[in-house]
Each structure stands twice: as C-alpha cells, then as structure tokens.
Amino acid sequence: MKNLPVTIPFFDEKESQNVKKVLDSGWVAQGPVVAEFEEAIASHEGIKYGVATTSCTTALHLAMAAEGMGAGMDALAPAFTFVATTNAIVQTGATPVLVDICRDTYNIDVEKLAEVIRNDYREQNGKMVHKETGNILWGIVPVHEFGLCCDISAVNRLAEEYHLKVIEDAACALGAKIGEVHQGGFGNPSCVSFHPRKSITTGEGGMVLTENEALAKRMRELRTHGSTVSADARHHGQGYLLPEFPEAGYNYRMTNLQAALGVAQMEELPEFIRRKNMNYDRYCSCLQTFERGELMRFREGTYANKWFYSLHLYERHPDRSKIICGFDEAGIQTRAIWGLIHMQKPYLRCITYQIEKAEYYSEHIINLPCSTNLQERQIVEICDYIKKNL
Ligand SMILES: Cc1ncc(COP(=O)(O)O)c(C=O)c1O
C-alpha cells in the first residue's frame, strides 16, 4: 500500500467552479457567499442562525466572549480534547477546570461534572463560587468527541440547576444527531470546524450555530471589529452607512473564497457521512477477529458522523510513536490521539478533577485512515496489518 493518508478532503468540479465565480466577482473577502454558506449549514442542522468565522477556535472564542465568559471565571471542560477548546477559554481571560471523560464514548463524564460543582463550589448571591480560588463558575464547555454527541440533556440539566451557561465544542460533529435533533439544536450555541480533517472543509473555517437572534447579531458585530455595520449592509444599504465601534471586537471573518468551497462541500455532506458510516462498518467487520482492541463505540440513540476511526488498544504500548512509525513504513498514516490538556505547558497548573479514564484513553488510542474515498480493499489491508502487528 502506498502512503495512505489518515485523511484527505474530497473535491470535484463544483468546488473549482464556485471558487472561480468568486474570483471573477472580485469580492473575495466576507460577503454574500459567506451568508449563503451560513444558511446552508444552519438549515442542514435545523438551526436558525449560523455565524461563520476563520476557524472553530475563533468560533469558540467569539461565542464565549459574547456569552460573557471572562477573567475571574471558571469554565468546566474535558481534559481529553484538542487544546483549542481550552485555548479559547483562556483567551477570554477565564480559567479551565478539567474533568474526566466516560468509558467507551470518550465524552465528558456528567457524574464527575456534577461532583466537581457540588464539592468544589459553593453558592453565593446566586452564583457558584470556587471554594479555594474564589472564581465564579461561568459554565460548561462540553465537547462532542470524534463526532459523537455527548449526553447533552444531562449537561443541560446541570446547567439549569446551577444557572450556568453552556457552549458546545462541536468541532468534529457537523451532521451528528441525537434522535432527530442535530448538534446545534440542543439549546446552546455550538461551534463547528471546517479544517481539512473535518467532515467538510473550507481550508480553515468555523461557525457558531445558535437559535438566539440577539446573540447571533452580537457575534456578527464582534467578529467584524465590533462594528455596527456589516460589509454587506455597507454595500447594499442606501447612502453611506458610517460604522460605529461601541466594543473592541475581532477580525474573525471568513472569506467568500472559503465559503464558496464550503457551499460546494455542503452538497456532498450527506454522501460523505454515508461513506464514513459504511467504512466504519467495514472496519468493524474486518476487525471482528482482532482480540487486542476494538473501534470506538457509539451510544444507542445517537447518530454519529463517524468522523474518525479510533482504535482502542487494550494493552498500553509504552512507545506509541513506534507503532505509528510501523504503520508509516507499511504506507499507512495513523495518528496518536491528543495529549491531555493538563500535560501541556500552559495548563500544568490547572485544576483537574479525578481524571483517570482520560489518562487511560490518551495512551491507548490510535486513529486510523478515514478519508471519505477510502476503498474496501484498503480497509482490508489496514486491518490485516493491525491483526499481524499489534
Ligand atoms: C475538539 C476540537 N475543538 C476545536 C478544534 C479547533 O478547530 P479549528 O482547527 O477549526 O480551529 C478542533 C480541531 O481539531 C477539535 O478537534
């Protein structure tokens, strides 16, 4: 097998045509194609508003800032996530408090969430205040790990009980559902990513989805330097609209060029997800006789987008890079899963709450090739390699 990447995006003529149209129009920065892309994503997920940004990291930061997260506050987040989740928290001035994940689904452990709130915070004037640091608990940032929605109803119940806010990190979860409700429809702002490793791509890009009109408006202003007048309104409004900047905002604008890619990719999303599911089933059936590990499991009642195929190896391998190099030599690119957040330099002093399973999984998971155009025979070869060598 020759250099099979862990994942590459799939493009065809439609993407080139859409990008060419934008180039020909001369309007390459944020404009009407971004609005079209926002509408395509929001309507696919059954949500009213989409606010496109330059990445999921900036989408998270934008939503957090607009929802009042800031200095002197804590946000509860899983220790097992990509560092972007907590980097966005830190950029608001707030502090992440790290919680464990569940067995099998790798999603945030809601029992531990409840415990940390009850044990480490006390109520003061209607707010939860950390007993040692005095920080106010802003809320929770759950992650829909690997495209599998977390137990969001339980997270929402906790948030209601303690008057907390929730922003969902749905970077990998575009198209994922619980029952018939898509991610984004669970009552909180959710943030998706369009990095090339995600279900669809715009090169780099992200979006906040929300049902809240006022929040969407505020985020649109904040992403454009805090301006009260969007570029679109300036171009299409009557006379000259003088923007005001009542708040110091950011430049988190997606470009029309990126959105043009996204609009084309969105047409393919159902087919991409169908293929990802089909290939997941193929991997599972090829690995049926493999006794030293299994693929990530998905909770009943959830419809995951099967974004990544995570192989859980039961035995701890002291040197995972050796395993990855072995795959590489066989022409198969794989990836170790994230290092834990509190092992990264900026987070070494973060408060962590009884983290065990996250530590276990971060040492036991290898992500396998998962491009949408992966062929059955390639899956068979990958699984043969696994059965012979791991
Ligand atoms: C869980 C999670 N959150 C956030 C991000 C950041 O996404 P982006 O690269 O679009 O900023 C990623 C990227 O992989 C992710 O996996």
Describe this structure in words.
This protein has about 400 residues and is α/β, with parallel strands linked by helices. The chain folds into two domains: about 15-265, 3-Layer(aba) Sandwich (Aspartate Aminotransferase, domain 2); about 270-390, Aspartate Aminotransferase, domain 1. It is about 40% helix and about 15% strand. It contains twelve helices and 18 strands. The strands form five sheets. A five-stranded parallel β-sheet has the order 7-6-2-3-17. A four-stranded mixed β-sheet has the order 1-12-11-8. A four-stranded antiparallel β-sheet has the order 13-15-18-16. Helix 2 (about 30-45) packs parallel to helix 9. The two termini are about 20 Å apart. The model has no long low-confidence stretch (mean pLDDT about 95). The protein binds pyridoxal-5'-phosphate (PLP).
Could you give the order of the helices and strands? Answer: HHEHEHEHEEEHEEEEEEHHHEEEHEEHEH
CATH architecture of the largest domain: 3-Layer(aba) Sandwich
Helical percentage: 25-40%
Radius of gyration: 21 Å
What percentage of amino acids are in beta strands? 15-25%
State the fourth-level CATH superfamily of the largest domain.
Type I PLP-dependent aspartate aminotransferase-like (Major domain)
Distinct ligands, ions and cofactors found in the model: pyridoxal-5'-phosphate
The structural domain count equals 2
Label the overall shape: globular
Q: Mean pLDDT, nearest integer?
A: 94
The CATH topology of the largest domain corresponds to Aspartate Aminotransferase, domain 2
Largest sheet, in brief, is: 5 strands, parallel
Class from secondary-structure proportions: alpha/beta
- Assembly type of the chains comes to single chain
Low-confidence stretches: none
The total count of strands amounts to 18
Query: Class of the largest domain in CATH?
Result: Alpha Beta
